[in-house]
Amino acid sequence: MKKLRNNFAISSMLMVSPLAAILLIFLVMPIVLIVIVSFWRATEFSIIPAFEFDNYEFLFGSPVTYTVFFNTFKYALITWFCTLLLGFTIAFYLAFHIRTLTWQITLFLLCTIPFWTSNIIRMISWIPFLGRNGIANSTLISWGVIDEPIEWLLFSDFAVILAFVHLYTLFMVVPIFNTMMRIDKSLIEAARDAGANGAQILWNVIIPLTKPGIMIGTIFVVTLVMGDFITVRFMSGSQSANVGRLISNDIALLQYPSASATAIVLLLTVLITIGILLRFVDIRKEL
Amino acid sequence: MTKFTHRNGLSRRTLLKGAASTAVAAGATTLGAPMLWAQNIKDVTIRQFGTGVSNLNDVATKVKEDLGFTLEMTALDTDSVTQRAATQPNSFDIADIEYFIAKKVWGAGNLQAMDTSKIANYDKIAGTFRSGLLTPESTIAQGTAPHTVGFTSGQNGTDFVQEESGWMTLIPTIYNADTLGIRPDLIGRPISNWSELLNPEFKGKASILDISSIGIMDMAMVVESMGEYTYPDKGNMTKEEIDLTIGIFTEAKKNGQFRAFWKSFDESVNLMASGEVVIQSMWSPAITAVKSQGIPCVYQPLEEGYRSWGGGLGISAALSGIELEAAYEYINWYLSGWVGGYLMRQGYYSAVPETSKEFMSADEWGFWYEGKAAEGDILSPTGNKLAGAGEVRDGGSFFDRMGSVVCWNSVMDENQYMVRKWNEFIAA
Amino acid sequence: MEPRARSFYVLSTIFAFFILFLYGPTITIGILSFQGEGGGLTFPMRGVSLYWFYDLFEQQAVGDIWGSFRRSFALGLMVMVVTVVVSVMGGLAFRQKFPGSNILFYLIITSLVIPSILISLGVGLLFSQSGLNVHWSTSGFGSQLTWTLPFGLLIMFAVFNRFDKSYEEAARDLGATPWQTLRHVVLPIIAPSLIGVALFGFTLSYDEFARTLLTAGSYNTLPLEIYGMTTNVTSPVLYALGTLTTVFSLIVIGIFLFIALVMNRRRALKVSDAGKGV
Predict the structure, then answer these.
(1) For residue B13, how many other CB atoms are within 10 A of its CB?
(2) Interval B343-355 mean pLDDT
(3) pLDDT tens-digit readout, A188-232
(4) Among A99, A274, B379, C156, whose CB has the most other CB atoms within 10 angstroms?
(5) Phi, psi at B283, each rounded to 5°
(6) Other CB atoms closer than 10 Å to residue A1's CB: what's the count?
């Protein structure tokens, strides 16, 4: 029996070796290297092996760091909240109100088509959409809702959150949808037979059962927002920053050691956040 | 993608073959006589990278026509260009970079110096790039002037020398004088000072570029124009001066002066064309791009003067043999006028104005270089109308504009400090 | 068929707005791609024309759209194939515990959540410090895999979690070898998910920007090329590209649906007689 189990184990390990190799070379080693480089020194154009805490000292000593990390968390939290509301509603609709599998798939695909256009092209197009003379403002003005163009539609925190919600809601919809589909329909019937109305069913039956999906969706959305730098830069008109921007600015100026130091701090922050979230769901079971 | 006109290619090649045999026989490396021009030059591929400013596909096409080898171009943004020049020496053969980038990356040793004796039109290169003086009466502007980082001690020198040593770091090809761009129709009154960028009248409608080495210079021009401070050398500020400059702008930012910042050319065009912004730092071709959409836009000459930048071609240190010869041939061809004319018709200045003149019509030369009123329509190299009859180029003639340059895009000694402060500004 | 609850209509409206929201930029791009010749990337529209669609197939002033498109496409296919293969193998492997499975699992999660810029920076540093050249087919390829593999693997884990082992047992009872079981029972059942993984892998790779930023080498992928083109004047030709891509994806999905419908109908026609032998 033990030999059989060993055989299974060995065959598993063999099957997983390409994966392990890829992760080793392209994930583990780069991270190790970043850690090492974060202790180095830099000149204008090259990096010098050393071992000093300068980069970390500067990072923790600068008020910018705290502002920027605060911004990052702020965006993550607000985006999470919006995507949760929206994503849950959409997932609920798709899981419980759409009857056939074909339609579900069709509607899903319909949702993913906009993402086949390059991200950059889509970002450029927000200006004509949200700008002073853009579609949104012009439509609102022509409907008489407002007299002057709304300034804060673009190049503001609103625009950043809007773009994030636009990009990442689907990442919330999919896991929640997944979990919802696994809910035993008889549970809902039982609740109805016991006299619960729609709202009570939602609150007492469906939401608790979809918690794992919500957790997974949260993990996706939070990490994506925390790691982003392009969206923030573009939608705020470069006026606000998050940690990703700090890192990309440093990289652009060849200051790899300070970029690495910031990157390590970001990574640790993200991992801690995920660690906390993972305590609420056993991800392996709930997939 | 390449148009191969047999007549041109053949005649030039036969001419070159003849020249090559004499050159080889005489061992001469003199003016206009290319080194090795065997049939296999067709197989040579030269990889060039740079910003979109001069990485134009039309140039590659013409290179294939005139010189026979293939030029592959890759366009990147300014910061990525710096990065690649400094860290990926094997990924390119020719680097098309600005002089301030050269100051940053020359020490990395990824570029090799060029022997000026092999450059045919060396003597016709504008004085700004050789002695630093446009005319004998000019004063040298503040900042990283190209001639201060244009020469080095030897083929593999990693230093800069201050005389014309015979070895250039970059061969200058293009430059211009930059100022603020405005929407005259939305502003409605004359603008004549850099300080107008922070004028509360334009609150929420101003912009500045988010590239630290260039933005800081624009900031300094504004601060000096406001009368807040006079810099001994804007191109090399002390920590206190940096703090002062960025502090003033941070306050303006918090007061909502800026609508957005731009990092790429095309963002600046969009901001201006859509009316989101009415006054901003801008680059010359962006002005022409906005104008060609039929939207009034002026590159405003200001009392205090212009900020200038210069760019050139550098050769990778890894290049040798026939590719190196092809590179020299390319550079000589670049300075021989066709590209110069092309760039000048977009609003830039060629480093060798004399040869470019031959590739421009008299009207174009008058408009772009001499600052005269146009006689007919002025078209861009791609056929868009840029100016009508009777219009004068913003700022006037070459000497009016380049003669009013007061500072160059720079890399200062306190660069790392400046960058950190810049990041704080952005995050504020 | 029970009648629709009122909440259905409310939710449908919300869904419709959601779709509109998602398609906002796409619609803007669509409108602006018909921009007149003299127009730019923003309103006002200067006339209406198909000019930019023609221009898409001409050489651009700066940038090489079709070259980078070919590269992106090739890279996308490579990533797609490797992702599917490695995900299936990984999914199969994780069905039982083996030494290191926990660590590997957390590595996969890390690969998913790690900010893209770290991968870009790290792989770039790795290659430059070890003296290798970055190239889109090596370093770019690997970086993109760190992004697509976790998705593929998570999908496979989900699929195998719900996989009914009794099919495999039945096959074993009938005398099939493990390889035959795999080929004739497991793979056909998970085939739809494989298509999902493939599609995911390709899409994620095709539009990937952050992880390839520093790892693509001298020749750009399409997103990088577009980004580079924005350093000089860009024109509505980008919008034309965007619109064509949308139309193209609609067609591809339409074809898939059509095939699915046809296959469903065929399967319904070939009525099986299982369970009727009473």
Answers:
(1) 17
(2) 85
(3) 888 888 888 878 888 888 888 888 888 888 888 988 888 888 888
(4) C156
(5) -105, 150
(6) 5
Question: Which residue's structure tokens are 């790899």?
Answer: A256
Q: What is the pLDDT of residues B35-56, one digit of tens each?
A: 445 556 777 888 888 876 777 7
Asked, for residue B385, whether it belongs to a domain, the answer is no
Identify the pLDDT of residue C59: 66
Q: pLDDT for B279-333, tens place per residue?
A: 998 888 788 778 877 788 888 888 888 888 888 899 988 888 888 888 898 999 9
Residue ranges per structural domain of chain C = 21-61+235-267, 66-232
Q: CB count, 10 Å around CB of B193? A: 17
Nearest chain A residue to C93 by CA distance is: A12
Of the candidates B357, B362, B313, which has an alpha carbon nearest to the alpha carbon of residue B334? B313
Please check whether residues B292 and B215 belong to one and the same domain.
yes
Tokens of B249: 């702008």
Lowest mean pLDDT among A20-24, B159-163, B363-367, C11-15: B159-163
In a domain, B299, yes or no: yes
Residue B378 lies in a domain: no
Picking from A2, A8, A11, A27 by the largest number of C CB atoms within 10 A of its own CB, the best residue to mutate is A27
What's the domain count of chain B?
A: 2
- CB distance B262–A238 less than 8 Å? yes
Least CA distance to C35: which residue of chain B?
A: B293
Query: Chain B: residue nearest C44 by CA?
Result: B274
Of C23, C24, C29, nearest to A121 by CB-CB distance is C29
For A214, other C-beta atoms within 10 Å of its C-beta total 20
Chain C: give the shortest CA distance to residue A217, in Å.
12
Contact A9 C104 (CB under 8 A): no
Q: Are residues B161 and B226 in the same domain?
A: no
Mean predicted confidence (pLDDT) in A102-126: 80
* Prediction ipTM score: 0.78
pLDDT, residue C278, reads 53
Structural domains in chain A, sorted by start: 64-286 (1.10.3720.10)
In a domain, B124, yes or no: yes
Half-sphere exposure of C200 (CA within 13 A, CB side): 24
Question: Letter for the amino acid at C231?
Answer: T
Q: Do the Cβ atoms of B299 and B181 come closer than 8 Å?
A: yes
Q: Say which CATH number the domain at B251 has.
A: 3.40.190.10
State the nearest Cα–Cα gap between B416 and chain A, in angstroms: 8
pLDDT bucket at C43, cuts 50 / 70 / 90: low
Chain A interface includes B92 (CB < 8 A): no
pLDDT for B32 equals 34
Chains that touch C (3 or more CB pairs under 8 A): A, B
User: What is this structure's pTM?
Assistant: 0.78
Percent of chain C with pLDDT over 70: 88
Same domain, yes or no: B187 and B150: no
Identify all chain B residues contacting A74, using CB atoms and an 8 Å cutoff: none
> Contact A93/C11, CB-based, under 8 Å?
yes
The strand pairing partners of B279, in sequence order, are B182, B206
- The CATH architecture that domain C66-232 belongs to is Orthogonal Bundle (1.10)
Query: What are the structure tokens assigned to A109, written together?
Result: 């695909």
A242: nearest CA partner in chain B: B427
Residues of B with CB under 8 A from a CB of C: 1, 47, 49, 51-53, 55-58, 61, 73-78, 80, 83, 87-88, 90-92, 264-267, 269-270, 273-274, 285-286, 289-290, 292-294, 382, 384
With CA atoms as reference, the chain C residue closest to A267 would be: C114
Structural domain of B280:
180-304+397-427
* A113 contacts C41? CB cut-off 8 A: no
Cβ atoms of A245 and A227 within 8 Å: the answer is no
The chains in contact with chain A, meaning 3 or more Cβ pairs closer than 8 Å, are: B, C
Please judge whether A252 and B82 are an interchain contact, meaning their C-beta atoms are less than 8 angstroms apart.
yes
Parallel, antiparallel, or unpaired: how do β-strands B45-50 and B94-98 relate? Answer: parallel
pLDDT tens digits, A26-79: 999 999 988 888 888 776 666 777 787 878 887 888 777 888 888 888 999 999
The structure tokens 């003849």 sit at B18
- Cβ of B274 within 8 Å of Cβ of A131? The answer is yes
Nearest CA in chain C to A83: C18
